[in-house]
Fold:
Amino acid sequence: MAGAAVSNRQRSKIAPYLMILPALMYLGIFFMVPLYSLARMSLSHSGGSVYLPTLEFKWDFGNYLSAFSRYQDEIIRSFFYATIATALSLLLAFPLAYVIAFKAGRYKNLILGLVILPFFVTFLIRTIAWRTILADDGWVVQALGSVGLLPSEGRLLSTSWAVIGGLTYNWIIFMILPLYVSLEKIDPLLIQASKDLYSTNRRSFTKVILPLSMPGVLAGSLLVFIPASGDFINADYLGSTRTTMIGNVIEKQFLVVKDYPAAAALSMVLMLTILTGVVLYTRALGTEDLL
Amino acid sequence: MSPTPFDHLTGLANKQTSRRRFIGSGAAVAAALAIGAPIAASCSSNDKSSTATATQSGPATGTLRVSNWPLYMADGFIAAFQKASGLTVNYKEDFNDPEQWFAKVKEPLARKQDIGADLAVMPTFLMARLHGLGWLNEINDSNVPNKKNLRPDLLAASADPGRKYSAPYMSGLVGLAYNSTATGRDITTIDDLWDPKFKGRVSLFSDVQDGLGMIMQSQGNSVEHPTTETVTKAIDLVREQKDKGQIRRFTGNDYASDLAAGNIAVAQAYSGDVVQLQADNPHLKFVVPDSGATTFVDNMVIPYTTQNQHAAEAWINYVYDRSNYAKLVAFVHGVPVLSDMTDELTKVDPKAANNPWINPPKNVLDKAKGWAPLTDEQAKQYSDAYAAVTGG
Structure:
């Protein structure tokens, strides 16, 4: 009897570990191993034949230095574009999520459905569609030109604005959904209580709604900023030779130049910079819901 | 060009084929157990490696997997070949950027693993690279009697004398294309590319040979004797113009839609593409710049991992029949790789036979030069230096 009790207790102790085992194995195989191999590659030196180079691991930090010094423009540009795209997403998504959560009533599901609908079309096709919309001879350019709102290049396609617009458009859904979820969780009685305490609409918003929606703002910002800074499709299709982002450089280094150590070092730089930014951002916003 | 979701889909499709083959061979094993080895062995003979099929002399059987550039095929051509040969063709337009294609296949090819293609069409420099690495099978001439129709200059080409490992598929000119409504004037020289009027409306090829060749010629240098100095001089000019904002994009084959839409006024272009685009937009013009242009040749090659060498040779032989080839040329609008095509072309498409960009007169051909074969080190050095300007 006593033995059975012990083994039961032992079993309940290892049960949680058994339950996370599949996820751990998944992370180990599909995240840690590739990450290790990427890190190792970024510190390697390629030599041997021209088209089938051999990689030799030798703690070559020079890859990082040259990656950073050669491509600092692209790195800075990527984070600049991603920051603007995140801010634009937040500005556009907040009122929308607010309306869906508090004002839409029985149309809530319909509006949510409409928000998600465009994303049934693949990313690539949607981006290519923007090329037609923003074409130099298209009606958008003509309309903006007639009211004098065109950027200095006199066109929209192949400008920074097109790339930032594409990034915002393609990733905004990842801002809308978390924002909606966090706004939806807010108890309307809290807003009513603030009104009972003679709060104006503005003060209810800044003192009650905004602080309570912070987890959504934070999650949404990260979900937009991280993929946007590594994106290369938008810069490729909507940009020009002067809007190259770090994702384009990494792609070209891996697939055309085939300098794997340089490409790996750039990927690590991108990842570490994002990680640092994310940690600082979450600290600044001071929410414990995510980290 | 970047890897697209389509590449991903192609990858999935390839996986399905290999899975089918896996199931197929599993079935063959089961059959061997059930009804004895001799019958099963004869059933699975199609799965044998190239060495077994290379020497086969009867008619080709089974499936042929072809990788080609997009829009490089005539309507009904594959169906006609299938009917004539009894072979099944699995035709894929998955070859868009030579360097990206090489990046995808080099690991499996180095390990001698199937790359999902029994025959692939590629530019000369890539063919030479694969041949140098020992990754191409020799084409058995006795299975390609129509090889006698090949243009003598291509047969003797220094990249592959006697064409043992490569069979030219289509040739063409690399020149300039322009949209006359956008430019408002004729374009005749490379200097026209740098006209401030076309700022941000010029596209260049990201490929070293196609992109830099005509620029080197405009600087008084030759592509037949390239040196680090002459290539660097051309790269410097491109960098200067890029920094000025003159160049909108560096492209592969994807300049065509921008040119047709009017986003690009002047582009480096392939003659065949422009002839095709002119059908919809008569304002598009192709021109060989005064200082000269370059030629390109795309070649059919058989990777040493082919699953059906015999079928690949049957395909090459079919393509090299003048009346079949005329249909291909009339659709693709390239410069023919077979000699004396005028009669057959006139039968299929008299307009094509009279088009100077399909049947170029001597004065045009004299201005168009082919690049000298580059050593691996040269090719890599030039390509890396140009890639640093084109965005990476």
